[in-house]
Design brief:
By secondary structure, this protein is of the alpha+beta class. It has 1 helix and 5 strands; from the N terminus they run E-E-E-E-E-H. Strands 2-1-5 form a 3-stranded antiparallel sheet, with no helix packed on it. Strands 3-4 form a two-stranded antiparallel ribbon.
Length: about 80
């Protein structure tokens, strides 16, 4: 697969979990037996939700500080 290898990638073959293997140093591979199968890839990084919460809180604080400055000065600088 032309997807960079990372520990948070998961795969399923016909709904059953399969191992994702590193391939060619930069990519990843699946072992798929002969025949027709449905391959599903998932990227599940547990840090996404906490990082998103920090980003949203930072945006709210920054927006509040900008709004406060605009109210005090009467203009956006």
């Amino acid at each position: 697969m032309s997807i960079t290898n990372h520990k948070y990638w998961q795969a399923r073959l016909d709904g059953e979990p399969v191992t994702v293997w590193p391939a060619n140093l930069a990519y990843q591979a699946l072992i798929v037996p002969g025949g027709r199968y449905r391959v599903e890839l998932f990227y599940r990084n547990p840090l996404i939700v906490p990082c998103m919460a920090v980003t949203m809180a930072s945006l709210l604080v920054a927006s509040g500080l900008i709004a406060r400055d605009v109210r005090r000065s009467g203009r956006l600088s």
